[in-house]
Amino acid sequence: MNITSLNASSYNFTSIQDFRRQDQDRMTIVAAVFLIFSGIGLMGNLTVFWFLCFKIQRNKYTVYFMNLSAADALLETVAVMTLILNIVGYQSPKLQFNGVASFNLSLTILYYAMIYIGMYLLTSISTERCTSVLFPIWNTVHRPKNLSTIMCCFAWALGSLESLLDNFVCGPSLWQITANCFPIGVMNFVLAVGICLPLMIISSLFLLIKIGKTFRQRYPPKLYIIIIVAAIMFTLSVLPLNTIRFLLLCKLIPSNLLPISTVAPCEFWMIVNSALNPIIYVLIGRRWDQGSCFSIRDNLHRAFSLDNAE
């Protein structure tokens, strides 16, 4: 027996084990950091949902943002559960739970459903706000009274259906493009990048122009700023994910070479984006006068109040 060869093999095995342990420790730290973000985002979105639902006079835009905060809260709930499972898996790889595959599939369906629902809600908010400025008479006279509720129900139904098709046709791994998954991938890309994102961008640009024209006369409505910031943040979140998946769909990127360092930041940015939304609402709605007291209810009321003309 070659003792030197045996010692070298033992050394290499130990080095691999040490490397894996260090990698697991790094992943645990990253997951713990984003777990904190998710917890803060969950509490923030639940707080916004509570105030918009029970403490603030409802209007056509608070209905949208109430549903958006509910979707963000559910997304953060899924993130908290997933990150906890990941941390446990990193530290105890041999620990197994009964039904963990079905549970992970349910979390994946809910996670992507909330992303799609948030996209449709933001598209509806920005488009309706832009339409109300372009066609004020229609907005005042002919707009259906329950349009906000109808659009929110449509967003929840379409987003849920899209996520179910993703997971049951494409499988649990949405990054493995198969022949059956090709039509679903095309549909997702067209809906997100071909329809929703252009509508959000065009509406946001129009609102920016509107703000520029009225800024010297009076301070622009805070709702304009919230819609623009939320649309920009969400675009930065959704565009990389859909771009990567489109490249996979066209086989411009080999799926087996897709690095986790490319996908993970996009996924984590969705968590951060949802966690930042309540902070954005409160900061934009706050009055920064010297000596003014901090009130979440008053800040949200100012943030989502309508123009005097409406």
UniProtKB/TrEMBL annotation:
Q: Which InterPro entries match?
A: GPCR_Rhodpsn, GPCR_Rhodpsn_7TM, MRGPCRFAMILY
Question: Matching Gene3D superfamilies, A to Z?
Answer: Rhodopsin 7-helix transmembrane proteins
Q: Which family does it belong to?
A: Belongs to the G-protein coupled receptor 1 family. Mas subfamily.
The record ties this protein, via PANTHER family, to:
MAS-RELATED G-PROTEIN COUPLED RECEPTOR (PTHR11334), MAS-RELATED G-PROTEIN COUPLED RECEPTOR MEMBER D (PTHR11334:SF65)
Q: Give one Pfam family, short name only.
A: 7tm_1
The question of whether Lipid metabolism is a record keyword is answered with no
* Stretches assigned to the G-protein coupled receptors family 1 profile domain: 44-281
Q: Which residues cross the membrane?
A: 29-52, 64-89, 109-126, 147-165, 185-211, 223-248, 268-284
Subcellular compartments: Cell membrane
Where is this protein chiefly located? membrane
Record keywords, A-Z: Cell membrane, G-protein coupled receptor, Membrane, Receptor, Transducer, Transmembrane, Transmembrane helix
Gene Ontology terms for molecular function: G protein-coupled receptor activity
Q: Tell me yes or no: is Cell wall biogenesis/degradation among this UniProt entry's keywords.
A: no
- Bilayer topology annotation: Multi-pass membrane protein
Q: Return the protein name.
A: G-protein coupled receptors family 1 profile domain-containing protein
The UniProt entry's GO CC annotations, sorted and at most eight, read: plasma membrane
